[in-house]
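Researcher: We're reviewing a set of sequences before deciding which ones to prioritize for further study. For each one, I'd like a predicted 3D structure that I can look through quickly. This is DUF1993 domain-containing protein. If possible, include the structure in token form so it fits the rest of the review sheet.
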Amino acid sequence: MPAPSSDPLPLSLCDFALPIFCNGLGALLHILEEGRRFANKQGLNADKVYVQARLIDDQLPLVFQVQNAIRTVFMNLDRMTGNQWDLDGPLNNNEKTFEELEMRVSMAQLEVREVMKERPHKRDEDLVDIVAGGRPLKVTVTEAVQFHGIPNFIFHVTTAYSILRAKGVPLGKADFILGFVGWRCL
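Model: Here's the predicted structure for DUF1993 domain-containing protein, in token form for your review sheet.
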């Protein structure tokens, strides 16, 4: 398999990546909303049944998947814009309820929308440090976002989807994919 190309994208990095993050957050919010609705219909307490649910014992729970998806978005916003979001302030990972998780996703999506309006300056070729597979690497912002940030974000959104699906929430592929085709952000 050929190595990924680091050739510049035909779009700016922000034009390419920000809609993926914004729409993916929309998909994540939709998945969480469906989980809450299903719990309500079944007379379940979503906070007790889902928030700490895992696919397997050694994988982190739903709350972590949501928090880390959002942390990944903000880390990549930092890389693309040069702004520093306070990852220990409003993103301090203290959510304990389904409602708090939904609010966190909504807040992150609004922030991405604001950045989309600003059309941030290009930092695409600036070098940044990342850790991938336990290995520290120095890569361009473009490489960090394309080959580390977006896959990491999608991994956590997919895992959140899978946890709720495994807990019986009637989610289908469309619940996941529709968010990425723009029904929330564009």
